[in-house]
Design a protein that fits this description.
single chain, disordered N terminus, 14 strands, 159 residues, eight-stranded antiparallel β-sheet, mainly beta
Length: 159
Amino acid sequence: MQLFSKDKKNVILAQQTGEAVVITDVPDPVFSGKVLGDGIAIIPSSNGVFSPVSGTIVQIAHTLHAIGIESDDGMEVLVHLGIDTVKLNGEGFTCYVEVGQHIVAGDKLMDMDIQFIEEKGYNTISPCIITNLNDIKSLEFETGSVIGGETAVMIYKKQ
């Protein structure tokens, strides 16, 4: 059952299709310890990566494993694709957006070749976190089976 509607304000959509899990399940202490922020993670079952919010692309890692987005309402959202995938130097990733581009929630950002990445020995679990938590009054999560660019996985209230 989906608790949140993507029509509601202050919703963050799943960035990938797969299984949404709590951030503490990520096998990396930077994410599971909420060092960079709080959010969810998705164990992807398909290659598409979609924008979780409407906003502006503010950063794309040169290794294509991470994208920073500033939402139209000022939330800083980090989409990190896989664990230690920075070591792939961009292999297995195809990017369709550029820094400064305005995107709409659900727009396709990238493809992540999950089979290739797994064959290289990397975990494909992908966190999506809000990094400016001081601007957040409350944050709720939805876990379970999700569709990238469609299923709401987080809802927040700003301060």
